[in-house]
Amino acid sequence: MLSRALHCCSPRAGAIAVVATILAGMVSAQSRSSGTEWLTPDVEARLLFTGRHLRGAMAVQEVKSGTIVSALDSDGPVLPLSVVKLFTAAIYLEHRGALPTGSAGDPGALVTYGSDDAGRQLALNLRHALGSATLLRDLERFGFPRCHRGVTDCTTLTPDAGDAEWANAMSLGETDFRATPRGLSHFLRIIGNGGAAPGEGGGRAMRPETARLLQSAMIDTVHFGTARGIRDRLGVKGQIGGKTGSGPGGARLLDGIFAGIVFDRANIARYTVLTYVRSGGLGGGPRRRFRRTWQLYLLSSKKN
Questions:
Q1: Average pLDDT over residues 24-38
Q2: 241 closest CA partner among 46, 21, 23, 45
Q3: pTM for this prediction
Q4: pLDDT of residue 14
Q5: Burial 225-246 (b: 16+ CB within 10 A, else e)
């Protein structure tokens, strides 16, 4: 039950439990008759949180079109937490051919198992080998430029910042980044789009090979790593890959995040799913109407 997941275990369990409810809706066998009263997924998202005493945010978005399927406070500030390890892994994969041997890392393991120390070390190796300016340019391509007036998703990292600040920011995601669910979803769409930036004329934000390897690492996170709890939720209809996180360190009650991509049975990226639960949440269970609505919106024949 969602309530049990939110009360026990790690704080990221709350965010994963919300995703589990969404995925349960995708495989629901129920269908809507013309006379059946129902709610939109956007309203259902709010009910899932506020109706069950959860505090947080979410965004479910189509990868190709960018259409927001469901959102709750999707433009509000959140901590990216360990989702930034996807940034670090992406930068490594973009430049690994030009890196010295001593800068080698295992981005797959970094994403799948989420070692903070490995993330810090890889971030420092990249900074020392490539320079801060290169990392900042890559972050800008990913949708996180240097912060300035009017920008909601950005980084406050500078070339003058110390190594410890860079290492913690690029591995923990608790400082030096300003993020929203919509902004993090934008980055996930880049990965799902094979490295192409969303929108007309968006150009290429990362190489196709980088995007493919990140997709694989995110799928491994669900199959073998920190998001195993939702591994089989889509059944034969597809699979999901993602990255979990919790923090900030030292807080009495930690927040939990899940950033994922839903793939159909042909392994085509269809949706991004970003859920953020503040302070661990209080609980609540999946509801039949919620499952029915997600089934209609995310797995309807019109969208297949």
A1: 43
A2: 23
A3: 0.82
A4: 56
A5: bbbebbeebbeebbbbbbbbbb
